[in-house]
Amino acid sequence: MCPVPKRRDQTVRGAVQPAVYRARDRLLRLFGKIANGGGHSANYGALGCCPGKAPDGTYSPLTQTIDAALGKALPAVFPQLVLGVAKDANLSMINNCSASGKNKPIPTICNAALAYSTVFGSVAEGAARQQFNSDRNLLDFMVDDIRRAESQLTGGEREKFQQHLNAFEALREQQSRLNEIESTLRKHAPVYSDKYKSPLPSDQWPLLVIGDLGGRLKTRGRFLGYPKYGADGHRTMANLYLSFLHAVGDRRKAFGVPDPNLRDLDQTGPLAELI
Question: Which of 64, 112, 137, 267 could link 196 by a cystine bridge, Cβ 3.0 to 4.6 Å?
Answer without folding.
Answer: 112
